[in-house]
From TrEMBL:
Listed InterPro entries: MetI-like (IPR000515), MetI-like_sf (IPR035906), TAT_signal (IPR006311)
Keyword Cell membrane: yes
Chain segments annotated as transmembrane: 34-55, 95-114, 126-147, 153-172, 192-212, 238-259
Keyword Hydrolase carried by entry: no
Entry membrane topology: Multi-pass membrane protein
UniProt-recorded name of the protein: ABC transporter permease
Keywords assigned by UniProt, alphabetized: Cell membrane, Membrane, Transmembrane, Transmembrane helix, Transport
A family per Pfam: BPD_transp_1
Annotated compartments: Cell membrane
Domain ABC transmembrane type-1 span(s) in chain numbering: 106-261
Length: 283
C-alpha cells in the first residue's frame, strides 16, 4: 500500500539557532542598506546644496560679487592649481602640527586632572577662565607677542583644540582603583573612547583655528588666500579656498575616524551589537 503520511519536515535546528540565523541575515541586509545609504544620502545632499547654490547665483538672489557660480569657483581653482595646492598644503601642515600639540598636552593634562584631586583643584579654575575667553579676540595679541608667520597660527589652533580634549580626557575619573596599575590597565583603555570623541570634536576646530590665524598673521595658506583675493574682488578664488578648507577638514576628520576604528575595534563591535539588537523584531 502507498504510504499516505506527509513526509517528515527537514530538521531546522534548535529555536535559538534559528533566531540567531534570522538575526544574522537581517543584520547583513540592514548593514548593506546602511552602507549604501551612508554613501548615497550624503552624495544626494551635496548635489542638492550645489543645485541651490547654482540657482541662487544664477538668479542673482545674492550679489554676484559675494556669491559666484560653482562653475566660476571651479575655474578659479583650475586656473592656478599649483598655487592653490601649495597654500592647501601649508594650511594642512599647520592644522596637523597644532592638532598634534594640543592632543598630547590635552590628554596629559586631562588624565592628570582625573588622577589627582590636588591637580584638579589647582588648575580647573584657570582652565575655565581661559576657555571662557573667545579665542578670536586673542588673535591681534598673538601677532604682537609672536610676530607674523606660523607661531601665532599654531597657537590659535592649539587654543581651539586643547579644551575639548582636556574636558573629555578628564572623564576617566568615573573609574576607581589604585593609580598606576589602574591607569595602565583600566583608566587609560577605558578613557580612549572619550579621548577620541574629544579629538574628533577638536579636528574641525583645528581647521578653523588655522584659517583664523592666517587671517590675522598668515603669509601663506588658505586663510591668507581668502583675505587677499576677497580684498581685490576676486571672490571666486576666495570661495575656491573656502571649499578647499572644507575638503581638508573632511579628509582629516575621516582619517581620524579610520584611526579610531583601527585602535578601538571593540568599541565599534559593541556599538554594532547594540544596534543590531535594537533592529530585532519584537514579539
Amino acid at each position: 500500500m502507498t504510504d499516505l503520511r506527509s513526509p517528515e519536515p527537514a530538521l531546522a535546528g534548535p529555536p535559538a539557532v534559528q533566531r540567531r540565523t534570522a538575526v544574522g541575515r537581517g543584520a547583513l541586509g540592514t548593514g548593506a542598506r546602511a552602507g549604501a545609504n551612508g554613501l548615497l544620502l550624503p552624495g544626494a545632499g551635496l548635489l542638492v546644496a550645489f543645485a541651490v547654490w547654482w540657482l541662487t547665483a544664477r538668479l542673482e538672489l545674492v550679489h554676484p560679487a559675494a556669491l559666484p557660480t560653482p562653475g566660476s569657483v571651479l575655474s578659479a581653482f583650475t586656473d592656478k592649481p599649483d598655487r592653490m595646492l601649495e597654500h592647501t598644503l601649508d594650511t594642512m601642515l599647520e592644522i596637523l602640527i597644532g592638532f598634534a600639540l594640543s592632543a598630547v598636552a590635552g590628554v596629559l593634562l586631562g588624565l592628570s586632572l582625573a588622577a589627582s584631586r590636588t591637580v584638579e583643584r589647582m588648575f580647573t579654575p584657570l582652565l575655565v577662565a581661559v576657555n571662557a575667553v573667545p579665542k578670536i579676540t586673542l588673535g591681534p595679541l598673538l601677532v604682537v607677542a609672536l610676530g607674523w608667520g606660523q607661531k601665532p597660527i599654531l597657537t590659535m589652533v592649539f587654543l581651539l583644540c586643547f579644551f575639548p580634549i582636556v574636558d573629555l580626557a578628564e572623564l576617566v575619573r568615573s573609574l576607581n582603583a589604585s593609580w598606576w596599575q589602574a591607569f595602565r590597565k583600566v583608566r587609560f583603555p577605558a578613557a580612549l573612547p572619550q579621548i577620541f570623541v574629544g579629538l574628533k570634536v577638536a579636528m574641525p576646530l583645528a581647521a578653523i583655528g588655522a584659517v583664523i590665524g592666517e587671517f590675522q598673521a598668515g603669509e601663506s595658506g588658505l586663510g591668507y588666500v581668502i583675505t587677499q583675493y576677497a580684498g581685490i574682488g576676486d571672490t571666486a578664488t576666495a570661495w575656491a579656498a573656502i571649499m578647499l578648507v572644507a575638503l581638508v577638514s573632511i579628509l582629516l576628520y575621516s582619517a581620524l575616524v579610520f584611526v579610531e576604528r583601527l585602535a578601538l575595534p571593540w568599541v565599534r563591535a559593541t556599538t554594532s551589537e547594540a544596534y543590531w539588537a535594537r533592529q530585532r523584531p519584537r514579539k
